[in-house]
Design goal:
Blueprint lengths: L3 E3 L14 E2 L6 E2 L3 E3 L15 H10 L1 H7 L10 E10 L4 E10 L6
Antiparallel strand pairs: 1-4, 2-3, 5-6
The structure holds zinc ion (ZN).
The site of zinc ion (ZN) has 8 residues, from loops.
């Protein structure tokens, strides 16, 4: 059982950083970053991607497959209540309108 993953970024091994350099003089390579599993990256994207850039590159390259996992064919909606109230501020008669959005729980409660 492995306790690490290789970064899944498609061009991770092409980024010019010193920590990716491996090999001896004359046969050096840039290698994909190794991600050790730990308490912080377990079950998160950081267990599989070394950076936001690698995560975005992966998503861009595999967009059609990712969407196919859970396609959204219609909009989702969250029931809300919108209230507006005049709020006074300062020593003079300054007021502004405050808009408050409250989520409404329609499923009992
Ligand atoms: Zn990476």
């Amino acid at each position: 059982m492995s306790n690490f993953n290789w970064c899944h970024g498609p061009t991770c091994h092409e980024q010019h950083t010193q920590d990716r350099i491996r090999g001896v003089k004359g046969s050096k390579v840039l290698r994909t970053r190794k991600l050790r599993e730990n308490h912080y990256n377990q079950r998160s994207i950081w267990g599989y991607f070394c950076s936001m850039g690698c995560y975005n590159d992966f998503a861009k390259e595999h967009m059609a497959d990712i969407i196919a996992i859970a396609p959204r064919t219609e909009a989702l909606e969250t029931p809300i209540e919108v209230t507006k109230e005049q709020v006074q501020y300062g020593y003079r008669d300054g007021t502004y309108t405050s808009t408050r959005i409250t989520t409404v729980d329609n499923n009992g409660g």
